[in-house]
Amino acid sequence: MRASPSMRGLGELSGALLGEAAGWWRTLRFGAVALVIALSPSAYDRETRAVAARQIYFSAWQVLAGFMAVAVLLSWVLIGIVVETSRAYGVAQYALELVLRALPLELLPLGAALFVALRSGAAINTEVALFHIRGELEALERAGIDPLRRELAPRVAGSVVAVALLTAASGAAALALAYVQLYGLLPWGLAEFTRLAGRVFGPVELVGLALKTFLFGAAVAVIPIGAALATPRDLRLAPVAVLRGMVRLVLALALIEGAFLAVTYA
Predict the structure, then answer these.
(1) How far is Cα of residue 184 from the mean position of the Cα atoms in its chain?
(2) Which residue, among 196, 192, 178, 209, has the nearest Cα to 78 in the 3D structure?
(3) Where are the domains of the chain?
(4) Is the alpha carbon torsion for 30, 34, 126, 144 positive or negative?
(5) How much is the mean pLDDT over the chain?
(6) For residue 43, which phi and psi values (nearest 5 degrees)?
(7) Which of 24, 76, 154, 258 could hold 52 in an S-S bridge, CB 3.0 to 4.6 Å?
(8) Taking the C-alpha atoms of 30, 32, 220 and 239 in order, what is their torsion angle to the nearest 10 degrees?
(9) Which residue intervals of the chain are DSSP H helices?
(10) What is the pLDDT of residues 59-72, one digit of tens each?
């Protein structure tokens, strides 16, 4: 008996879902191992430090000026909108707290992760996919070199540092812009500003921000690399691996941000 079209469609959908779940599982497993290596000081020698340094340079330092220009412009506009709207509705006393929660804690870390993803996520995906397709990772193994320790884990570490640097720089700029918008260039508002900022950036909030930034940075490298390593050894499929990795990365960043929002404001 021939299967009906609906049954064939259901089977294809089930197969696709199982394949996607298996891909996510392989990526998570690779990420766990890579992060353990990346966080181990003994894993770094001259070559691995050079790989991590190049990743930080291309992902953060080269784009720092452009990213800061965009972050400062958007922060200035958003802060102005929040301040003027709060004054119009008579709730100006809550403007600073809203700005500090919206920008340094939520929008700027996500923006930094997206910026690094666009800058180097696809590049990492393409590079590792070509390594995998051409058998260069296996060649390293035959030479007695661990490719995970030499080539992959340093890229993960570099991405984490890059996202953290951009998040810290843009967050500091947002704090300065918020002060200028609310108090001007005079120092008379520093005491009140410091008190309100300390109330917003409590220990729990700072730990949450650090954890979210770490997860963002790890995802920017782990997910593209995981997609690249799952690519069949066919050069024509490299663009497919890049697209799959970037789609998964955007979804993962949205899930991380949504989970932290739910925990923080539920």
Answers:
(1) 33
(2) 178
(3) 28-265
(4) negative
(5) 87
(6) -80, -10
(7) 154
(8) 10
(9) 5-38, 46-56, 64-88, 95-102, 108-116, 122-134, 136-142, 147, 153-183, 190-200, 203-229, 238-265
(10) 999 989 999 999 99
